[in-house]
Request: fold
Amino acid sequence: MTHEERRDPIEARVLEHLGRLRLTATREALPALLMEAARKKWTYLDFIDQLTRREVESRQDKRVRMGMTIAHFPMVRTLEGFDFAAQPSVDERLVRELATGSFVAHGTNVLLFGAPGLGKTHLAIGLGRRVVELGHTVLFTTATGLLSVLSKAESEGRLEEKLINSIKPRLLIVDELGYLPFERRAAHLFFQLVNRRYERGSMLITTNQRVSDWGAMFGDEVLATAILDRLLHHSETLMITGESYRLREKRRSGDWRQLFFPAGDNYFSRTHQLISIKP
Reply:
């Protein structure tokens, strides 16, 4: 006689009902929990607690996995994996506070400033993942990718639709702002996006450009001021300084000399000769 044939008819009926109610995790856990409950002599309340906990945890796990997929993070990075000791300029207390997700609840923006290779993208993804885990919707994009989508939508007459959709994520992460200069039309598109999200949803922006350089970056001082006015009104800022992670790893591995001074290139000798040349 198979296990299915030996199963108590009440248990079979409960399993059928759980299937109809789409309580998948509860249905899968029920047989094992029944045996554990009998062995440990759980009370009715203990049993219900264990059963519902399994269902809640399963649904939370599915929701987080779906949220991570929707967010389109380019890689896996976590706050736990960020080396604060290697980047002492990072305000760890502020990062921990942001990790509570309160900035999203209040519609606050976060701006991360710093040169390339200092961990801005790592922090952005880590905070984004934490926000997903807290139950909020997140979308990650690069500045160039975002503007490409908006430009295409404009040319196809769907800009309004895209701008409306841009409001939907509770947190919009825009990475690498300023790595490439903005054309005038692209700058206006970015302003429209920022304006639509202003006091409606949070933005997290990483940039290698100081605020004083945004006028040149956007090619328009007035437009840059209008963008900054909206981004900084409700905001938290993180300034990151120090040495690039990539160059530090290269130096530690011993490959950095080969990176800058290829074999056979007597750099020091040539430099000495150049310095010694008299005008």
